[in-house]
Design a protein that fits this description.
Order of helices and strands: EHEEEHEEEH
Number of helices: 3
CATH architecture: 2-Layer Sandwich
CATH superfamily: 7,8-Dihydro-6-hydroxymethylpterin-pyrophosphokinase HPPK
CATH topology: Alpha-Beta Plaits
Helix content: 25-40%
């Protein structure tokens, strides 16, 4: 999948003239029509993030990790995007990206959680932004638990076989 950005759009946009960064986002769903929700999220990422190339892993089913008892299985995937950050400051770009992903989650029906790791129609996590480390109250990059989760690492290895968090 690939998409250009139109400067007249009010989308989350960046400059195709700037340097791209490898951006990895993990997607998960365990409420509703998970496959359709993930397909819609991938399409929306493709249409709203300025990029040169977007790769999508296979969708895989996984058991819930650190979720309340009785939580349904997840459908997971990862996208790797050659992303053009919308602003030169990567800290600001990462925070803007987080807000964009949270808006996508709400659009898919996610509500404010009342229980930690409760079932949700869409979960989008920034796993990695090439060359960037980030620590704020709302976001840590690289994702602190990604390497412990096969449902994140296996899809990354599928689409970026030589991936390294460095």
């Amino acid at each position: 999948m690939s998409s250009g950005s139109n400067p007249d759009d009010s989308r989350f946009t960046g400059s195709p003239g700037s340097n791209s960064r490898l951006l990895i986002i993990a997607l998960g769903s365990n409420l509703g029509q998970s496959q359709q929700i993930l397909e819609t999220a991938v399409r929306d990422l493709n249409q709203t993030l300025p990029h040169r190339r977007l790769r999508v892993s296979s969708f895989l089913k996984s058991s819930p990790v650190d979720c309340p008892p009785g939580s349904p299985d997840f459908l997971n995937a990862v996208v790797a995007i050659d992303w053009f950050p919308p602003v030169p400051d990567l800290h600001e770009a990462a925070e803007q990206l987080l807000l964009h992903l949270k808006a996508m989650e709400r659009q898919a029906g996610r509500v404010r959680k009342t229980v930690l790791n409760e079932p949700r129609p869409l979960d989008l996590d920034i796993i990695h932004i090439e060359g960037h480390r980030h620590h704020s109250p709302s976001l840590i990059i690289p994702h602190p638990r990604a390497t412990e989760r096969s449902f994140v690492m296996d899809p990354i290895r599928e689409i970026v076989p030589d991936f390294d968090f460095q």
